[in-house]
Amino acid sequence: MNNVLLGHPKKLLLLILTALVIFCAAASQAAPLRTVTATITKISDGDTVQAVTPEGTKLKVRLYGIDAPETSKGKIQGEPFGNASRDYLASLVGQRSVRVEIRDIDRYRRMVAILWLGERNVNLEMINAGMAEAYGEYLKQPYRGPFLQAEQEAKAQAKGIWSQGNSYERPSQFRRRMGS
Description:
37% helix; 5-stranded mixed barrel; 180 residues; alpha+beta; two-stranded antiparallel ribbon; CATH 2.40.50.90; globular
């Protein structure tokens, strides 16, 4: 190590702490908290599923990085494409075994995860099909770029939710407006 730093313990400590912060920040963006295999047992809507692990653990999973149109809940009517989005997700993963790459836990105690069907990123497929938007407010690398690119391509082709043109309302805006 450089003798200049050895003579200045505060500078050495600052250098080590800076390197540690950079390393931890990079690791937290790239590495999932945990990865498990589970069978999808219920599709709540286009971005939320329930799953069961081989050990019998039940998981409520919010798909990372996407926001899908809301489905009807009680007296609150759903958004256009809400049912179509849920049905599309069901066609991809319903009753199938998937790899659940857990990225976070949200305020509702749901696992926030990428679902993998073999090598297929299900979250990205929902965006590609126009059945969900990229949730840019929460996206981090390595998914941010591909998810935003997929959304732009789906918009350009007016797929799914993007076929509504100017009448499209983001799910986050719909939830605020409806008070949910």
